[in-house]
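Backbones bend. Our protein:
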Amino acid sequence: MTDECKYDDYNYVRENDTVQTHAPTIDTYNTAARALEPLMPMLTWEQVYFKLLRAHKEIKRLNVEIPRVVTWIADENRVLCRAERVLRSPEGKSREKIEVDIGMAVQLALYHQQRGRFDDTHMQRFWALAKTPGFTGSLKPGISKERRAVQDALQKARTELARLEGDEMEVDERTLVVDAAAGGWRRDDNDEWEDTAEEEGQV
């Protein structure tokens, strides 16, 4: 049986000696539970097994969800900082517009501060979790779908702009060649244009 499926086979877990080493711990708990008043419910290995199985699935899910939360926090912080910076900038604004934007910037800063307190709490818990032995997740922020869409749009715009600039250069080059043929120009050894009229005494 492969390692990938060993936790999916109940009989394998029952027969595995390393797993059965937890049995004394369960017996100790049950002995203590019987001595309590009122009696506490007994614990069976089957209950422990299914909790362990569920824990493994939960770890896989959290390894996906935690980076999503970290990405959201990073993106929100970036957007709010940029928006506040734009609102506080007086460039190209009238006096009335500056006053309105400054008021909005103050409100945005207060909102950002409030959000930041919650974000700090989440990140502190994530950092503490990351220090736990056996942690297999990541706290590195990814790229959200919205940000990816913006990046793709910008890249597409840059590519189109470069293509248009390239077409314009080709047009200018062809125009120069035509003018050269009419006016007696040619390229020299350094790939630069020179006037052949001087050589022919046309100047």
In short: The chain has six helices and two strands. The radius of gyration is 35 Å. The CA atoms of residues 150 and 156 lie 10 Å apart.
